[in-house]
Amino acid sequence: LRILVTILNVNDNSPVFEQTNLTKVVPEDTKVNATIVARKDLSASDLDLDIIFYELTTIVPGTDGYFAIKGVNNPEIYLQKALDYEKFKLTTLVLYARDRPVGSTDTTNTATTTINIVIEQADTKSPWFLPCTFINADNSVCISSPYIGRVNISEMSMEPLILEPGPIYAIDPDYMLNEKIVYSIVGGDTDKVFSVDADTGNLTMNKVATSPDSYLLQVMATQVNNIQKYSTVSVEIKVINKSDHPPYFESRIYNGTVFVGLAPRSFVFQAGEPSSPMMIIATDDDFPDV
Question: What is the dihedral of CA 157, 161, 164, 165, to 10 degrees?
């Protein structure tokens, strides 16, 4: 008698990952849909030769939605949403491998592997002139105000000009990279009256200003490593007459008279002259026409 015996495979083995913990460094400017971890590095094996079902979860709050797997049977991890180093710098993913679909009532064996994702800051931002004001909640955009300075007409200043709200200064907002920045004047100085130090940003004079018109300079800050990363700012230089004398009042003491019961904004009159409003006048010998 010939007896045919068929051995039925019992689900008595769990899936196995080759690596139960791995770390990947991902540049901040990685393109969406790019592969982060290849399928071959994440595929689990099963001695029972079952079909493996995968599920990816994120365990760091605020970092979900950025990474996903290609499919329930394909564990390749890809970038689903653009990264931002300012929002988070690392996250941890857990990949589950099951030998039965999620929700199955059959006995299911499970394995896990942990993927640590480290975000590497990329050169994504142009320089910021300081001081500046953030205009969005995540502090990714900072707008600077114009710089303002003054020079005396027909007078040469030998020192760097004093500007408000401070000296010309720009930084690389990709602060982990902190690339070197150089400065240049790119507009508003057709007469070449001014120069800017490429390294320090100090603004100096090449020659005297002979016109009372103000200068509206455009100064550019450029990253040395990437000339496509630059910003510009306005620098207004007002040309004024030199002031050697302080203003002074025509009289050291003014005496006035008011009457009881006058309405607000009523005139104060000169003492002894009830019909003449009191006037307080100052003059300046440097500016006789003002």
Answer: -160
